[in-house]
Description:
Elements: H1 2-30, E1 42-48, E2 51-57, E3 66-71, E4 78-80, E5 87-91, E6 94-97, E7 108-113, E8 118-128, E9 133-143, E10 145-146
Parallel strand pairs: 1-10
Antiparallel strand pairs: 1-2, 2-3, 3-5, 4-7, 5-6, 7-8, 8-9
Amino acid sequence: MKSSRLSIFRTLILLFVSAFSFAMAMTSCSKDNNGVDNIPAAAVVEDAEGKYFVTFYPEGRTKEAVKFTIGKELNAKEIDLSQPGNWIVSTKGFGGTGDKLPLRKGSKLFINVQANGMIEIRYDMMQADINNSRHLKGTYLGKLEKR
Length: 147
């Protein structure tokens, strides 16, 4: 009698450990160490009319994009987005233009479209209105896709 109870207890322990191990293995495969989905960022560039039209997906193509338009003369130069210039930035609920709607002081953008098919993007953008303020910051260095 004692041996059958001990056998049932061992079997239950083994099932519990197996189920727990399986659950841990399944959750660790879908997330990275920060608990964020491991979706690669992407940048799409269109070269037209003397400008670069850049669509940047910081969290992969399933999430919101940040769009930049800069004159080619601004490529590989830090752009002060609080000053007038040949630039446009936009994303959901946020935007500015170099001709009519500059961003707050300290806002800047750097885009370097490289001949080897790579792109570097760095931005730190601040915008405020009567109701709220937003701050967007990001970086990307990787392959670009041409449109």
